[in-house]
Amino acid sequence: MPVTQNAHNTENSNILEGDGTAPKALPEDTSEIGEDGIPLSPRDHSGVHFVSPSRDSKNGDAKVELGAVGSVPQFVGLGKEELMRYANDPFWVRLRWFLFILFWIIWIGMLVVAIVIIVYAPKCTSSSDKVSNYLVNSGPYYQISLNAVTDEADRFSGLQKHIDHIKNLGVKTVIISQFQDLADFRSVNPATGGTSKTLSDLINAFKNKDIDIRVLLQLSPNHSSKQHRWFTSKPNYYVIEGTEKVSKSTWKTFFHSKAWSPIFENSTESYLHQFQESLADLNYRNEDLVKEMNEVLQHWYNVSEGVHGFLLSDVSYLIEDLDKLEDEKSTINQDGNRKALEKILDSSNWKLENGRKEPFALLDVDHLDAKDSMRLYTGEKMIPILTDFATRLSENFTAEDLKAHAGSVNNHFVIRRLSGPRTGRATTKYSKEREHILAMIAYLLRGEVILYYGDEVGLQQSTTSQLDIDGGFETMNWNPDADSGELYAISLLSSLLV
C-alpha cells in the first residue's frame, strides 16, 4: 500500500507546476488556418485512407487504413488562396456567366414552349365532344311513331296511357315522331286525331316529377307539303328552276325516281322533290326561309317546358349545288348544310323562361360513314345519329366487323340506333341472338342509344310496311305474351338501359 501511494503522489507531482498550480494551456497554432476554418495550405497528417483490396478479397469488400490516433485528417482540396485565384480568373468568370445565362435561356424557352403547347394543342374534349351538356346522361332514348299508337282516336292521349311501359325501360328521353302537319308547320298532324293541347298534356305527363322523362320532337326541315300556303304565296322559299334547264338533270329522289317536276302541267318552271312528289324541297339559300324555320322550331320548343330539343330528319338534303345538275352527289351532304342547321337552331333571340336551357338536336343523316357523319355534323348544339350497326353490318357479321365499326369513332361521344324508320328493324335483319349482341355492345360503348319502339318486345318489320320518310307502320304490342319469348327481350334491354 505505501508503495502504491507514493507512486500516485509522484504521478500527480509530474503534472503540477513548480509553484503547485495547474499548468496553463498553450494557445492553438492557427497560423495555417483561415478565418473560415479551411487550412491555407495542405498539411501532412495521416488520416483515414481507402486502399485497394487484395486479390483475395470478395466482391464488395473495401479496405480502410486508419492513421495514428489523434492525428488530424489530411485536407486534399483547394485552399482558400487557390480558390480565390480561380474565382477571379477571367476564363472562369466568363464560363460562370455563360452557364448562368444559358440556364435562364433554357428555362425561359421551356416555359414558352409549355405555353405554346397549352394554347395551340387540341383542346381536351369534354364528354360530349363539343356537343351541349344536355346530351351527357340524356339517354337512352326511346323513339315512338304515333302511327304505332292505335288504341285511342287521339294518339297523344293513347300514348299517355303507356308512359309506365316506357318508364320501366329506364329511358331518359322520348322522341315523338309524326306529330307535325307538313302542310302547316305550326299545327299537329291531323292523322294523330289530337290537338296542340293534347300534345302539350302528353309532354307534361312525361315531365311529371314521378316520371321525369325528357321529350324531343321530330321535325323534317328539308321539305313541306305542296299544300302548304308557302308553295303558292312564297315560291322563292322552294328550290325552283326552269323546266328546260333541269330536263337533263340526273338528280334522283330517295326512291330513285326523277327529282324534278313541273309546278303544274306544262309549267316552264319545275320544283325539286328529293322524296315524294307531294313534298317540295325548301330553299335554304333564302334567309327569309331560314328565319321562318327558326321561328317554327321556337314555336314547338315553347309548346311545353318538357321539350328539350329536336330530332331533325333529312338534314343531308338541305343544300344543293345547282351548278351540277348532272352530278347526283351534289344534292347531298353539302358544306352549307351544317351552317343552315346552326341558323335554324339559333335560340339567341328566343324567349326562354323559367331558366330553360337552349335546345339541342339529334340529326338523322344519310350516305355517310360514322367518321364523316361526326366530322360534318357535330356542333355545340347538334350531333348526328349513327346507323353503322344497322346499315353497314352484314347479316352474318363477325367480331372483327363489329370492332372496325365501333373503333372508327371510339374516342367520341356518339348517338347510335339499331332500328329506325329508314334502316328497318334489327330484329328482322339479324337473328334474335345477333340482335341481342348488337344491343349489348351498343349500350356498352361510349355514348347513348336510341331504342326504336317495338325493339324491346322483338317487334318484327311488317311485310306490308314501306320504308319511306314516315317509316314503317307496325302496330306496337304494349302487352307482350310471356310465352312468345318477347319478355326475354324486354328483360335484356331493360337491364342494359337502367
Molecular structure report:
Helix 15 packs parallel to helix 16. The protein has helices at residues 2-14, 80-87, 90-120, 155-160, 163-168, 196-207, 230-233, 243-246, 287-301, 336-344, 370-377, 388-391, 399-407, 426-429, 432-444, 486-497, and strands at residues 49-51, 63-65, 141-145, 173-177, 180-181, 184-188, 214-219, 223-225, 240-242, 260-262, 269-272, 279-281, 307-312, 360-364, 382-386, 414-417, 447-452. With 498 residues, the protein is α/β, with parallel strands linked by helices. A hairpin with a 2-residue loop joins strand 5 (180-181) and strand 6 (184-188). It is built from 16 helices and 17 strands. The strands form 5 sheets. It has an 8-stranded parallel beta barrel. The chain has a 3-stranded antiparallel sheet with strand order 9-11-10. The longest helix has 31 residues, at 90-120. 32% of the residues lie in helices and 14% in strands.
Keywords:
498 residues; alpha/beta; eight-stranded parallel barrel; elongated; disordered N terminus
Major beta-sheet overview? 8 strands, parallel, barrel
End-to-end Cα distance: 105 Å
The computed structural class is: alpha/beta
How are the strands of the biggest sheet laid out side by side?
3-4-7-13-14-15-16-17
Q: Over the alpha carbons, how many angstroms does the gyration radius reach?
A: 43 Å
Overall 3D geometry? elongated
- The proportion of residues forming helix, as a percent range, comes to 25-40%
Low-confidence stretches: 1-18, 40-46, 465-469, 482-492
- Mean of pLDDT: 80
Task: Let me know the number of strands.
Answer: 17
Number of contiguous helices: 16
Strand content: 5-15%
